[in-house]
Every structure is written in structure tokens, then in C-alpha cells.
Request: fold
Amino acid sequence: MHDHEHEHMHPHTHDHDHDHVHGHTHEGIAAFDSTEQAVRILGYMLDHNKSHAEELHEICHRLEATGEEKAAEYLDKAVDAFRDGNSLMEEALRALNKEEG
Reply:
């Protein structure tokens, strides 16, 4: 089913459960006074996004296991796009850290 390389080993293990709906607001996220604050906010968001990407990847594998190949294929592509976005966020953080240092 997958036509790309995975950056991690299987099976997946997680130290936390996400059987709940994430209820959070984004008030004040765009309001920051310094590059240092921007780095902290982006670092938090990147960690959050990586966690969600792994959760989506696990859902993809579960869908494959239940015979839902088409849905798994779409979700697999979404996970790849999610990871691409995370890579761009990492580049932004590296650029900000160079400016800070």
C-alpha cells in the first residue's frame, strides 16, 4: 500500500493516549513581542503537529488492517503532506534560531 519510505520502525508505541477531542484556542498565538516568543510558540506547535501526524499514521495502518485501502491511501497522502508542513516549520525555526543567536 505505501509507496514511500518510513522514518520510523513499527509497531508504534505512544506514551500518551489521545482518545479525547482536543479543545484548545489559538487566542494570542499570533501576538508575540520577540523572536524568542515566536520560537517558543512555533516549537510548541511543531511538537503538537508531530504528535498528530503520528496519530494519523496509526489510523492509516488500522484502516489498512480493516480493508479500508482507499481511505488509508488518502490518509497516507495527508500524513505525507502534514510531515512536509512540519519540515517547513522546522526550517522556519532554524532560520529564527540563527537570527536569535
Observations:
- Helices lie at 35-65, 69-100.
